[in-house]
DNA sequence: GGTCATCAAGAGGTCTGACCACTCAGAGTG
DNA sequence: CACTCTGAGTGGTCAGACCTCTTGATGACC
């Protein structure tokens, strides 16, 4: 309690926990390129022994990385068993957004603005680069929504599929992952809003029309129009479904 | 091995692991709204007893949620000790992107396109909504980069700060978080590229000019110009620093 | 009465060692 | 040759002990 006055600046030492050291070790190998997609991690017991931590610490680290979609574990023996570097970004990102949206860390306006930014890009990319075969899932979702007297739940499902399919057709995986995660995190809130809508048939009809217009723009390879229509569609949807 | 032919469709049962059940339990409380930011979780031992799993399972679940920035643990006793619902989206998102970029799940073009989409939006939002006081950190980063004969590492640091500050000045936390995470995940690759540039002084001067132009557009509250300049700046930077 | 050292309690952090469940490879068997 | 069985190695789970940290109460001392 004495050296506070003008002493040498003591920077707080991190005091890392065991599992954080393990994460850092694995992350280091990944960033260094010595561990790439498909590679196996050593067995938990080995890793624990090598890093001088308990197996519990190793397992906690693996859980965190698994939660981020970086790693994937399989029980069993021989070929295929063990923990491997994976490429499953969706798993982690979706839960991440779902929880933080639910916690109110991001409110509706922010989500809408983000969706607009990402999906404008998706739409433009898809219009420019996607051929008819890439548009097949988009078309399929579009037609599924044309079912007469469709229930909000079903519609919402295909609606999600429609937007997600456009995102992936654009060929940009990062944009697509973020779009998927955001749209997915909004599925339940959107569904609740749809169920509370007074005139569902009317709303449904409008959404259908807008979807068809977007689809046409994509098929016409008109990037600007597709982007504009997508932005208008998203903004209008939220305005209708979440009136203030 | 007999009932395969036209038997009743057996859907695979999930076989969830213990920690996943714990996550689901906590996530359920969050989605239901009974657990919000600042609330404490029961002590690990209690939670384990209530959910009928071992403490290890509870700890693995908490680690996953901590990795996503949903929860935060503090040792000790009394007020302030324990595990709490938190709102730290950055922590998780940054590592997520850093690792997946390193793993090559997202390549450079995809990252650039995403940055353009997000930062165009940030720039426009900032130009529209931010007052001079919100622009202070942007200005500070700008001036820090004007230091003559600045080292690439230092420049890169302030460059990151500049773009991140714009993102936050826009007032959209989701866009800002994603922008921060992406920019941060590119810091090391960018730094490496800057160090390898043949004519650093020249590149540096160009980047400075573009930054100043963006700053002026923001101060002028010209959203369209700010967005256009930002897009051009990002695309040009990558074209110069990562020539093919 | 105030101030300070001390200590107990309660929280997370760690480790150990055991056992279970699953899966594959290969030995053994008809 | 085909099938079955078994062993071994992997992650999954658990129980229990102990450590460290932090707080708040206790009580001695001034």
From TrEMBL, chains A, B:
Keywords on record: DNA-binding, Transcription, Transcription regulation
Domain HTH gntR-type: 16-88
CDD domains according to UniProt: WHTH_GntR
SUPFAM superfamilies: GntR ligand-binding domain-like, Winged helix' DNA-binding domain
Domain of life: Bacteria
InterPro entries named in the record: GntR_C (IPR011711), TF_FadR/GntR_C (IPR008920), Tscrpt_reg_HTH_GntR (IPR000524), WH-like_DNA-bd_sf (IPR036388), WH_DNA-bd_sf (IPR036390)
UniProt xrefs under PANTHER family: TRANSCRIPTIONAL REGULATOR, GNTR FAMILY, UXU OPERON TRANSCRIPTIONAL REGULATOR
Name the UniProt record assigns to this protein: FCD domain-containing protein
Source organism: Nocardioides nanhaiensis
């Amino acid at each position: 309690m004495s050296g506070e006055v003008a002493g040498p600046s003591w920077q707080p030492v991190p005091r890392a926990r065991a599992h954080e050291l393990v994460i850092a070790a694995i992350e280091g190998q990944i960033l260094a390129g010595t561990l790439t997609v498909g590679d196996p991690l050593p067995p938990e017991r080995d890793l624990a022994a090598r890093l001088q931590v308990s197996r519990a610490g190793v397992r906690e680290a693996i859980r965190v990385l698994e939660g981020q979609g970086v790693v994937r574990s399989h029980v069993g023996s021989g070929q295929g068993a063990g923990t491997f570097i994976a490429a499953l970004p969706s798993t982690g990102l979706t839960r991440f957004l779902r929880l933080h949206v639910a916690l109110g860390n991001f409110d509706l306006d922010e989500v809408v603005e983000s969706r607009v930014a990402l999906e404008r890009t998706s739409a433009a990319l898809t219009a420019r680069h996607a051929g008819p075969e890439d548009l097949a899932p988009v078309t399929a979702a579009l037609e599924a929504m044309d079912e007469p007297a469709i229930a909000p739940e079903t519609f919402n499902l295909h609606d999600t599929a429609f937007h997600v399919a456009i995102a992936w057709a654009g060929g940009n995986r990062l944009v697509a992952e973020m779009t998927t995660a955001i749209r997915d995190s909004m599925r339940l809130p959107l569904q609740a809003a749809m169920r509370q809508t007074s005139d569902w048939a009317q709303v449904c009809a409008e959404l259908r029309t807008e979807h068809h217009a977007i689809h046409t723009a994509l098929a016409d390879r008109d990037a600007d129009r597709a982007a504009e229509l997508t932005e208008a569609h998203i903004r209008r949807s939220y305005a209708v479904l979440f009136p203030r």
